[in-house]
Design goal:
Helix content is about 35%, strand content about 25%. It is of the alpha+beta class and about 400 residues long. It has three domains: about 5-150, Rossmann fold, CATH 3.40.50.20; about 170-175 and about 255-385, D-amino Acid Aminotransferase, Chain A, domain 1, CATH 3.30.470; about 180-250, Dna Ligase, domain 1 (2-Layer Sandwich). Strand 16 (about 325-335) and strand 17 form a beta hairpin. About 45% of the residues are buried.
Amino acid sequence: MKSKLRVGILFGGRSGEHEVSLLSAASVLKAIDRRKYEVVPIGITKEGRWVTASDATRLLNGEAHAEPKQLRAGDPEATSAAAVLAKGESVIVPPVPSQGGTGALVPFETQAATASGQTLNLDVIFPVLHGTFGEDGTIQGLFELAGIAYVGSGVLGSATGMDKDVMKKLFAAAKLPIPKHVSFLRADWEANKKKTIAKIEAALKYPLFVKPANLGSSVGISKAHDRKELGPAIELAASFDRKIVVEQGVGGKRGKARELEVAVLGNDKPEVSVVGEIVPGKEFYDYEAKYLSEGSIPVIPAKLTKQQTKQIQQMAIAAFQACDCSGLARVDFLMDPGASGRIYLNEINTLPGFTSISMYPKLWAASGVAYPKLIDRLIELALERRAEKDRTSFSR
């Protein structure tokens, strides 16, 4: 009888999206088919310590405490994933350079590995990590060195999908419509704030969205309606990244843009879900609207014409390919509220929220792919991509 695939679910991390990762991991751990997979939960604390826990066995046997019907980032302690981090007993040593053999790195080890040779030999890693150090190509580079199959985009796709400045350059090169924007460094802002504001106001019209270039889940994003709000918005964004992106609001002062989303699944031949729409409970879909407060309404499928739906789906695939993504991504769009109804590509998210109430799995559920099957497909794509990688020669 064929043995089960050993899947490591990696979550937590040092980014500002740590709590979101706990929510996503709790949902994956609850839904993954344990008849097919031997599941190993691995947490990374906010301090960067890699841990696992003996009480994870209860979680994998379905004996975890009941979780709330509506998981919110405001109560991560209620999630099983948070318990794994909080009660971690065994420290995991990430792959380190080997002392011989063919692999570039040795497998994950436990604290007792020196004495007993214990290791975590995994067939595939499912990194449910959002934001810095988990979604930006950093951890993907480690997996590549270790020769481990992993869910999601590679180093390049992850890095370009995280950096909103580089991402927009790739979208522009692919002739995809994007909102007007200005990018600059934190050092430029600190050197001459008046000059930076003058540059922004010469190129863009209020209202403006100010964002750290490298972060997700709307962390550090503000809407500036005028110059008075612009400075503090830049200061906030600059506290999260050395590079800041300022975008002109689609629709301007005439009204809020419609926020549309598409889920993409696949490697070289990606597929797209139905189009969904988020009607934010706040002025825009910020971190609080996504995870802390009620009121944001998902509309799936979005009320669009067939032509608009097709256009958005085609743009989603083009964006996925422009950033050299693989596995999964959620692509976000903005539609002008005016008569033109013009559609702009906003951004791509290579490791979107993965809770049972997140848009990515909900879009696929509405497209006929249930949550557990979606996990299966992502693991299959990870193994497919690893097999394709193994066909490549890296030396003569």
